[in-house]
TrEMBL record:
Flavoprotein found in the keyword field: no
Function field: Probably acts as a heme chaperone, transferring heme to an unknown acceptor. Binds one molecule of heme per monomer, possibly covalently. Binds 1 [4Fe-4S] cluster. The cluster is coordinated with 3 cysteines and an exchangeable S-adenosyl-L-methionine.
All copies of domain Radical SAM core, residue ranges: 19-249
Gene Ontology CC, one term: cytoplasm
Classification via InterPro entries: Aldolase_TIM, Coproporphyrinogen-III_oxidase, Elp3/MiaA/NifB-like_rSAM, HemN_C, HemW-like, rSAM, rSAM_sf
Gene Ontology MF terms in the entry: 4 iron, 4 sulfur cluster binding; coproporphyrinogen oxidase activity; metal ion binding
NCBIfam families associated with the record: hemN_rel (TIGR00539)
Family recorded in the similarity comment: Belongs to the anaerobic coproporphyrinogen-III oxidase family. HemW subfamily.
Localization (cell): Cytoplasm
Keyword Transferase: no
Protein's name in the database: Heme chaperone HemW
Length: 410
């Protein structure tokens, strides 16, 4: 996949003009409301849902005031959170209508809504599908009720199964499930039972995330108090390898460190934009935007966000220009996460350097450890290399790019 995907623009009125290409970006909408905070969660969201109507007014204003970047069309709209499925279908409709008014969405745009079991109804899912939501990502996290209680989820395993069946009946083009592994005491057999429950439902996409203890979350405080014993790093690493093997045996191809799809057209088009450094715009508190080389992000509280929009002020909290060195580091980090890795000719063109000369030593070390796939025009990690992604990335980024001699540049 190219770093910045392009699609042909129709010829200008058929008068023989040369067709040009337009960049294709993504749009992210943050819905910062949840029924209850899960114990492990460090995403920004609040549980006071009485603020939803005022929040939607503020969001509407932010989207309307945004300048559509020249020459950019959008082929993904991702409504995430938080728990967007706490919204009524007419509220989702309003967001989608404002986005369509302000930005050019491709006719075949991937439109994803994140949903949680326990907030869904059969009727609501059918209504969202009729509005044009074509991809549903359901935060199941576990098919074990004990695991769900540990994570502080609001739903049961049976709620999750019912939600998936309703979504299938409603006819979504793509249904994805999120799962978490590495819970205290979890054995390989427990995790395989969880994944078996998931693949039995035949979703198109699975995201399997390792449980992390983020600072400031209730779960990390419980860990500090030694309320439970976390799984050791090596056991979590083994579960990661188990995930890849089990899902491959059940028809799911890994395309990113945590993401698996039944076919390439069921991969998350939107998330691939983040990993390929494609442009995207984000709306709502704490949402990030990236229009290379600039990145900016919004204020992180609903209250402040609503105050600013009410007085017609910008909601951007900070902005940065990602310099060449920063873009190289991001290109490495994000490219290596994907199983098809970094396409070397694209990387060389983008950053004007000779990849194999600059990173020759690192590549040799990775090859020795069997962490590198054997491919001429790609730098891609083996499943074992992906297990040690952080170490691999550090090996690449420890290179001082500012000091790359001219002879190593193209
Ligand atoms: S539902 Fe999602 S966003 Fe909300 S608290 Fe739980 S993990 Fe966080």
């Amino acid at each position: 996949m190219p770093l910045n995907p392009t699609v042909p623009r129709p010829p200008d009125g058929g008068h023989g003009s040369v067709p040009t290409v337009r960049e294709v970006g993504g749009i992210y909408i943050h819905v910062p409301f949840c029924v209850r905070k899960c114990l492990y969660c460090d995403f920004y969201s609040e549980i006071d849902r009485s603020r939803i109507p005022d929040y939607l007014d503020a969001l509407d204003q932010e989207i309307r005031c945004a300048d559509p970047p020249a020459g950019l069309i959008f082929d993904t709209l991702y409504i995430g959170g938080g728990t967007p499925s706490v919204l009524a279908s007419n509220q989702v409709n309003r967001i989608m209508a404002t986005v369509r008014e302000r930005f050019e969405l491709c006719p075949d745009a991937e439109i994803t809504l994140e949903a949680n079991p326990g907030t869904l109804t059969e009727k609501g899912l059918r209504a969202l599908r009729r509005l044009g939501v074509n991809r549903l990502n359901i935060g199941v996290q576990s098919f074990s009720d004990k695991g769900l209680r540990f994570l502080g989820r609001v739903h049961s395993a049976e709620d999750a199964r019912t939600s998936v069946r309703w979504a299938q009946d409603a006819g979504y083009d793509s249904i994805g499930l999120d799962l978490i592994y590495g819970l205290p005491g979890q054995s390989a057999a427990d995790w395989i039972a969880d994944m078996t429950a998931a693949v039995t439902l035949a979703p198109h996409h699975l995201s399997c995330y390792m449980l992390t203890y983020e600072p400031g979350t209730p779960l990390s405080r419980l860990l500090e108090k030694r309320t439970f014993k976390p799984l050791s790093e090596s056991r979590v690493g083994t579960l990661f390898q188990t995930t890849i093997r089990f899902l491959a045996d059940h028809g799911y191809t890994q395309y990113e460190v945590s993401n698996f799809a039944r076919s390439s057209d069921k991969q998350s088009r939107h998330n691939r934009k983040y990993w390929s450094m494609a442009p995207y715009l984000g709306f709502g508190p704490s949402a990030h935007s990236f229009m290379p080389p600039e990145r900016w992000w919004n204020v992180g509280s609903i209250g402040r966000y609503m105050e600013l929009t009410a007085t017609g002020q910008p909601v951007v909290d900070a902005k940065e220009v990602v310099d060449r060195e920063g873009q190289i580091i991001e290109g490495l980090y994000l490219g290596l996460r994907q199983t098809d890795g970094i396409r070397i000719p694209d990387f060389e063109n983008r950053f004007e350097l000779r990849f194999k000369e600059v990173f020759g030593e690192v590549l040799a070390t990775l090859r020795k450890k069997k962490w590198l796939q054997d491919a001429a025009d790609r730098c891609a990690l083996t499943p074992l290399g992906l297990r040690f992604l952080d170490s691999v990335t550090s090996m690449f980024v420890s290179r001082d790019f500012s000091g790359i001699p001219t002879s190593e540049r193209r």
